[in-house]
Design brief:
It is a single chain. The protein has about 70 residues and is mostly helical. It has one domain (about 1-65). Helix content is about 65%, strand content about 0%. Pfam families: DUF2630 (PF10944). It comes from Actinacidiphila acididurans. This is DUF2630 family protein.
Length: about 70
Amino acid sequence: MVADEKALRDLLANGGIDGSTERERLDALERELDQCWDLLRQRRALLEAGEDPGTARVRPSSTIEGYRS
């Protein structure tokens, strides 16, 4: 996923991507990556708190996007 994101960003920066479809692909990939990072953070926090990291759940991207400042 990270490699896909980098490739899309490189294409976008070099003008190799045109059209809203490509931008949508990049946006969707960014949302998926944000969800993965959020899940990892949840698991680490649960582990550090002595709880079961297996109870962490993927949160909706709308919830995670609200965390950004």
